[in-house]
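Researcher: Predict the fold of Lymphocyte activation gene 3 protein.
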Amino acid sequence: MMLLECFMFGAIIFLMTGAQCEDIEIFANEGSVAVLPCTHKPWSSFPPAIIWSKVNKGTVWRKERSGLQYWGASWSQKGSQGSRIQCPHSQYEKGAYNLEISQVTEEDGGFYSCRLEFGAQFTESLVYLRIIKVTVSPPVPIWGRDVSVTCNVSPWPHGASVQWILNNSPFVPQTEIFANTDEAKSVVKEKATAKLSGNWTCVVSFKGKEARASATVSVKGIIQPSDDNTKVYAAVGSAVTLPCVFSNDLAPSSAVWEKLKPGSHFNPAPGRLPPSFSPSLSYSQYPWDRSGSLMEVRLEDEGRYRCSGIVEEQKLTRTMQLIVARIDRNMSKKQGSVTLKCQLSDTSDITDYEWLRVTYDLNGTKSVESIQKGKTLTISGVSEENQGEWLCLFYGKEGILGNVTHHVQLMSGLSGRKSSGSSHNTAAVVGLSFLLLVLLMILAQMYKNHQRRKRIFQYPALETIVHTISNEREERERTRVKK
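Model: Structure tokens for Lymphocyte activation gene 3 protein follow.
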């Protein structure tokens, strides 16, 4: 219909004046400044009269040769600080009489006419302004609900091709488009997920020209982790946080954590949470943070976990997998070595292992040395030089996934020098123990004699008798010797 109006309008101009109707296509983003071109080489040194009008809408802006300017009734009242319309006079000398419309809206789309009057002569040209924009419905979609992204062009250019770009990559809709029309392709309808978040750009190609409009889509829900079945790695005995963070302006109700029993991934049955599991204590201050934590990870804690919460009467859930890492130790007394093996409950995403040795000097300064690659490490001849912390790093396609630490300590029998030193120490301890025992026996005998004499001295008469008997015994012995 609009094309017919242009044809009729141009035909009337051509028949009445002999002037040509030049049709120019212009695209402008909604809210931007649209520049409608109107150029012509001046026919005299005097500026022409300029008349800009919109087809079927009347005059937009007009300037007489005297310099007086007039705005159409529907344009002069737009905004408290004046009209949205201007025609910069600084370009007149170059033969440019462009019309500038600021803050364009869908209603501004349509045919515009530029008429230049040079005395008795005049020329006229047509400009077709199309307003393009991208709309999102609902403006802030909730995870799991329907969302539509629409490319609006007013008026719509029949025969145009439409392409969608999401975060600088071409987007192919998952839902099937039944109507194979241009306008049908301009609408994308999907279930809201994190993959739809980002910058959407609509690219419209028409008559060799390309127009673009963009909008940002922000899907609200559980933003961390962003995908189901996210893997979390933790070492045995360590603490780990299982993230469950909603958009920061959401306050989910009925937040629940569950450990899922092994089995089907489609409808797994909830099991019992580990004894060391506890919900996040920060939800009172940050109601969108419903993370959980394990204070001390055990081997049996590995498996799948699920957190959930109610947002706007819709249940949002996220599943994640806890993968437990440990180091197995195997001692060989014959060879005097220790073998360390890095073990994980799930190695499907592991691409490589690396062993590091961590040491500390007398000042407590930490140093890290890379030893070797591989899952297994053999330490030959365990001694003071290689005792301490040994760290196993495990990698995935995107880099380091986690680590687990083992402490190597000296054991008697693994090092000949250490064993010899231990035997000398044992002999010394035995000798000192024997001397201490003899000393204790002597002290005990002296204490007994002292106690006996002490008891005797308590009775003087008994002391006299004992003394007399002792003297008589000595006298008899002397007499026997003389004979």
